[in-house]
Every structure is written in structure tokens, then in C-alpha cells.
Design brief:
globular, five-stranded parallel sheet, 5 helices, single chain, Alpha/beta knot
């Protein structure tokens, strides 16, 4: 199952971008033998400002993918639960899983309506650039959990 972290905005050489790319590469290496990967980070930019314009470019990249919106009102999941969710989707035949991360103002209602799930990173507010790295790390962690690697919480 291909996994895409779809993000509004380009980070360039920001430290968060390097961190997210590193975790995505690790997730790809760990996940491939278990049907998970590649894990990609795709940055998009709207030609006009605002959530509606961002929604246009996000929705254009989703196609028939299984969409999970990263949203403050979503469900916070433990790492094990997150891994189990990804494993169920893979086992159910989902070919492409997309996690959408909006810009500074979040996701437009059309993206939220198109999503089949919502994921939150707890009650705190996180910079959208940092959420990329956090999400990529959790995908990596899910891949290692699915692979049966020792997990320090056990």
C-alpha cells in the first residue's frame, strides 16, 4: 500500500522538511517487506490564498485514495492503534493511503468531507510543518510495529 503525506506549502530546506523526509525513507525501508510503501511526502501550493484554494489542489491529488485528514477535531490514536488501522487498511486491499495536512488555517470543509477518517495529534496546537515530521515518524513506527520489532511500550 502506497502512503502519501500530502501537505500544503513547501518547506524547502527547513529542518522539519529534512526530518520528515528521513522518517518517510525509514518507513519505506521498514514497511516494504510488509506491504507498506513507498511512503512519500508531496507538497502542494495553491495559486490563491485561503483554505478553499488549498482544498482545490489537495482534492486534485487524492483521486480514489483512502483519505485521512489531519485535523484538531480528529481522533488521537496510540501508536499501536495507528499501526493496527494502517494494517487493516492494507489487509482490506487499500492501494493508496493519503494523509492530508492543511496550511496554517487547517483544512477546508470539502477536504474534511472527503476524508474517511480524521487524525489528531492530541489537544495541543502544532505547527503544520512539524506535523509532517510527527506523522512520518508515526508511519515509520507503525511499519516497525507491523514488522514485529520490539516496541518499548511493551
Amino acid at each position: 500500500m502506497k502512503v502519501t503525506v500530502l501537505c500544503v506549502g513547501r518547506l524547502g530546506s527547513a529542518p522539519e522538511a529534512s526530518l520528515a523526509l528521513d522518517w518517510a525513507a525509514r518507513a519505506t525501508l521498514s514497511g516494504r517487506p510488509h506491504g507498506l510503501g513507498p511512503v512519500d511526502i508531496l507538497e502542494v501550493e495553491a495559486r490563491k490564498p485561503g483554505k478553499a484554494a488549498e482544498a482545490d489542489v489537495l482534492l486534485d491529488k487524492i483521486d480514489d485514495s483512502w483519505l485521512i485528514a489531519c485535523d484538531e477535531h480528529g481522533q488521537a490514536r496510540s501508536s499501536r492503534d495507528f499501526a493496527a488501522m494502517i494494517g487493516r487498511l492494507r489487509d482490506d486491499g487499500v492501494r493508496r493511503l493519503v494523509f492530508a495536512i492543511g496550511g496554517a488555517d487547517g483544512l477546508d470543509g470539502r477536504v474534511l468531507a472527503a476524508a474517511r477518517g480524521r487524525l489528531a495529534f492530541g489537544p495541543q496546537t502544532w505547527p503544520h510543518a512539524l506535523v509532517r515530521a510527527m506523522l512520518a515518524e508515526q508511519i515509520y513506527r507503525a511499519a516497525t510495529i507491523m514488522a514485529g520489532s520490539p516496541y518499548h511500550r511493551d
